Amino acid sequence: MRSFNKGFTLVELLIVLVIMVLGVSLVGPNISSGSDRASLKAASRDLKSALRYARGQALVSQQQVTVTLDLAANHYKINGKHQKSYQLAKSIEINLRTAQVDIETDQKGSIRFFPDGSSTGGQITLTQGEIEINVIINWLTGHVKISEDNER
Question: Where are the domains of the chain?
Fold first, then answer.
């Protein structure tokens, strides 16, 4: 009786290893861009929530509430009865378009919410790598929405 060893040769193992390395090298960059997109989406949702909170505080307190953005420090804060402060990741770039009166410096500006629910309005653009998301504040209603652009 003959007995055969059942196993793989060294050549077969090397071929499988090369195929696995090629597969990982193709998938790797896509995984990191997916995490960039996810972190940017999370940051935009947090910003939207903070803006909606500020609008709600203006309605409830019947006083003006301001959200101030420091573009250089990737930081924003809610100024009102209950002040809150938030920090964005350093890898995220912020751009702000708002009313001229609310621009303090070229790196600092605000969006104001009024007791009737309206606001000064504007657009905050968050960018990370090639991914861009806009947070849009309607001046008349104070409504905040997220608009995702595809790759820049």
Answer: 36-149
CATH of 36-149, one of 3.55.40.10, 3.20.10.10, 3.40.50.620, 3.90.190.20: 3.55.40.10
Measured between alpha carbons, how far is 19 from 59 in angstroms, rounded to an integer? 60
3-class SS at 20? helix
pLDDT in tens, 41-91: 999 999 999 999 999 999 999 999 999 999 999 999 999 777 889 999 999
Q: Whole-prediction pTM value?
A: 0.75
Task: Specify the 3-state DSSP secondary structure of 89.
Answer: coil
Tokens of 16: 């499988």
Report how far residue 128's alpha carbon sits from residue 124's, in angstroms, rounded to the nearest whole number.
13
